[in-house]
Design brief:
5-stranded antiparallel β-sheet; mainly beta; 189 residues; single chain; 10 strands; globular
């Protein structure tokens, strides 16, 4: 009888562990915009020591791109488009499983114009995983051509690599002098 009870307890604990590790599907919406009128000459922009982060493509990488009908940030997108000096570079939404094990695949981000160095204006990856809260981890590089005082043109690269904890069903904003990110996560199941 003790053996049967012990086996039942083990199976119950394994079931609870698996339930805790089960993935919850989330809809992730990301809006990234550039501040084209921001002054870049007064700051020092070091050359990144690594290439942009890589990730899976939404067009064939396993996560499912969602339609624009699912967007929660439509009105914000329109306000940014109507504001002088701001430009929407990227606005997409996808669904993905998010586990507490923090093994989510990063999503590749490529947007804007192709630059002379062969990279897009905005390039990198975004990872969303979960601990007690959702964790949003952008690893993005924004390139911009600037004209120096001598008339020559130089490409600067701004890096945004600031993980954030976030709650679902709330818009979260990550700021940088040259660009900004708005993210909205919604549980789907």
């Amino acid at each position: 009888m003790k053996k049967i009870l012990s086996c039942c307890v083990v199976f119950l604990l394994l079931g609870l562990h698996n339930a805790a590790q089960a993935a919850t599907a989330y809809g992730i919406e990301v809006l990234i915009f550039s501040r084209d009128d921001a002054s870049v000459n007064s700051e020092y922009w070091p050359i990144p020591d690594k290439a942009p982060a890589s990730g899976i493509s939404l067009s064939g990488g396993g996560y499912n791109e969602r339609s624009a009908a699912s967007f929660m940030l439509k009105s914000t997108d329109q306000r940014i488009r109507n504001t002088s000096g701001l430009r929407v570079l990227y606005h997409k939404s996808w669904s993905q499983p998010v586990r507490k094990s923090r093994d989510s695949q990063p999503v590749a981000i490529q947007a804007g114009n192709m630059m002379a160095d062969g990279y897009y204006e905005l390039e990198g990856a975004i990872t969303v995983d979960r601990g007690h809260y959702l964790h949003f981890k952008p690893d993005l590089q924004l390139r911009r051509n600037i004209t120096l005082e001598d008339g020559s043109i130089r490409t600067i690269t701004a890096v945004l690599d600031e993980p954030r904890r976030m709650k679902s069903k709330e818009a979260h904003y990550i700021d940088h002098p040259l660009f900004g990110i708005l993210v909205y996560a919604t549980p789907l199941n």
